[in-house]
Backbone:
């Protein structure tokens, strides 16, 4: 090796084009998802707790039936799957707060990663964890004796999972609102209250009438109705659909607005 | 992209925060391949300048050109990389995962193993970032900055908070990596770092450049001696006219003369004037630094 020559020819000009898809890649997704699945707190709140809720509150109802013949336990299982998915997607969205507080988002601004690709990664990771959360709840349900027809399994599962997209947006919104490392500690109780109003813990019918009316305007109501519709055979009411669409749009707009503010240079 | 384009061209850069002017009409041109130290005390505006250089902050006035384009272009193409004090890391990723994740954000990057090796952190690749020392985290930031094989590397006080050993190891890693073609700009408030690792020193004070030259030139600012005497009503012009005198300052009854020939000044003061309490002190780089970068500048 001749030193002077190698010193000057050492430099191979790399491919200097910006990355494809703004830096969104399966490899990054894989690392993100692995990171999420290593987080014991996330697992406890999104996978273990909803499953435990089912074993505590769902199993004792095993003998009871809905008017259409399905078990009450199945109703509880689907409700808790919605809850698990919404906690999962919210926590991933809200993790943006942690990453901002730690300065990681600033570190990322030194890379070609486009902010929109960053958000897309978060949303896909959130939906990934949401899917796992729904599956875990269903597996626990099935193992405990819940029996549904294949299409009801599929449709309730898809409803619970896709509906949780609302909460991925909600999580991002909150994540950009509070630059706190522990944002999820504030959101956890809020989610529990929302889940209550969405009829995920007890049927709305047992609430006082005033609260039943209020509940129809809260963000979990639409998702809950959507996910349980295949089970109850009631169909999805217009109110539930409007609720779902309006909250998704509101949270997405809020998150977008805050995200723009965050990525604007000072 | 022609090779004649400067690596960095800052002109009339200004940034204010409320009533404070952090950067005040700063202009600087750095040629490709230069290793430049941005030297100044805390609060001199180094970090703000670097933030504008990287496009993280928007200048109130003036312009930034990086390798002939905007900072955003340079970042999008991986031509510029930085090690910042404020750049955070995810505590729950391992060192290796952090590198692999970042590597995937570029269209083309150096292999993860290579940058870990060059930053000297191969042995802690499986360690969770939250369990790494400050120095190890800083070397991880350095490894991340190496990934795109950048034309320009910017480091903002890269060794702050490291112990002596950590600082030495960090600079050794940077030095190992230093090779023809890569431009390096680092901010520091350690004189010895600027002296040891830069070809060129830019001294900054209150958002302005107060001196800019090769390390030797900056050291020359410190050459010569300082002659101090008590002399009411000193004739400033006569003293300034003496051979070898660089500067004369009168403070009340005292006079301070910076000169290359202290004997001549002392002889003059003692034989031609009523001066008493004559003191002669030599100046070092530290003095030059202090003189140039503090408000109570001696001479």
Residues:
């Amino acid at each position: 090796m001749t030193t002077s020559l190698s010193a000057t020819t050492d430099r191979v000009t790399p491919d200097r084009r910006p990355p494809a898809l703004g830096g969104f890649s399966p490899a990054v997704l894989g690392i993100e998802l692995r990171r999420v699945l290593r987080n014991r707190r996330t697992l406890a709140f999104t996978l273990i707790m909803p499953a435990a809720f089912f074993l505590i509150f769902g199993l004792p109802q095993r003998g009871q039936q809905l008017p259409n013949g399905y078990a009450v336990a199945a109703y509880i299982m689907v409700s808790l799957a919605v809850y698990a998915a919404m906690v999962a997607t919210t926590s991933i969205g809200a993790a943006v707060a942690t990453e901002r507080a730690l300065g990681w988002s600033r570190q990322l601004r030194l890379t070609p990663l486009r902010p929109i690709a960053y958000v897309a990664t978060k949303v896909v990771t959130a939906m990934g964890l949401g899917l796992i959360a729904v599956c875990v709840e269903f597996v626990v349900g099935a193992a405990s004796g819940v029996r549904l027809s294949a299409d009801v399994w599929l449709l309730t599962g898809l409803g619970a999972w896709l509906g949780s997209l609302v909460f991925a947006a909600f999580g991002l919104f909150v994540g950009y609102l509070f630059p706190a490392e522990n944002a999820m500690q504030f959101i956890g109780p809020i989610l529990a209250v929302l889940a209550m109003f969405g009829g995920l813990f007890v049927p709305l019918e047992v609430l006082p009438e005033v609260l039943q009316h209020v509940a129809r305007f809260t963000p979990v109501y639409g998702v809950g109705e959507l996910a349980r519709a295949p089970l109850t055979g009631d169909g999805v009411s217009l109110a539930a659909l409007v609720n779902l669409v309006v909250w998704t749009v509101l949270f997405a707009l809020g998150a977008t607005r805050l995200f723009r503010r965050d990525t604007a240079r000072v | 992209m022609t090779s004649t384009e400067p690596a960095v061209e800052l002109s009339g850069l200004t940034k204010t925060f409320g009533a404070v002017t952090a950067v005040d009409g700063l202009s600087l041109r750095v040629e490709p391949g230069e290793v430049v130290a941005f030297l100044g005390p805390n609060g001199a505006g180094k970090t703000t300048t670097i933030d504008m250089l990287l496009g993280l902050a928007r200048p109130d006035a003036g312009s930034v050109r990086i390798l002939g384009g905007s900072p955003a272009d340079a970042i999008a193409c991986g031509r510029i990389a930085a090690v910042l004090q404020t750049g955070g890391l995810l505590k729950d990723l391992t060192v290796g995962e952090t590198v692999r994740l970042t590597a995937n954000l570029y269209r083309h990057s150096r292999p993860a193993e290579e940058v870990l090796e060059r930053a000297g952190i191969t042995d802690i690749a499986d360690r969770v970032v939250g369990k790494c020392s400050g120095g190890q985290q800083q070397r991880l930031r350095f490894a991340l900055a190496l990934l795109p094989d950048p034309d320009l590397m910017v480091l903002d006080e890269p060794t702050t908070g490291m112990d002596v050993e950590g600082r030495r190891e960090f600079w050794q890693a940077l030095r190992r990596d230093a090779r023809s073609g890569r431009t390096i700009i680092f901010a520091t408030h350690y004189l010895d770092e600027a002296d040891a690792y830069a070809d060129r020193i830019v001294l900054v004070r209150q958002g302005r450049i107060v001196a800019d030259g090769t390390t030797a030139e900056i050291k020359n600012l410190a050459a010569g001696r300082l002659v101090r005497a008590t002399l009411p009503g000193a004739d400033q012009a006569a003293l300034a006219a003496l051979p070898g005198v660089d500067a004369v300052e009168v403070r009340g009854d005292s006079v301070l003369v910076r000169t290359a020939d202290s004997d001549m000044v002392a002889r003059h003061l003692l034989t031609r004037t009523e001066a008493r309490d004559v003191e002669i002190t030599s100046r070092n780089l530290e003095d030059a630094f202090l003189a140039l970068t503090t408000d109570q500048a001696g001479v």
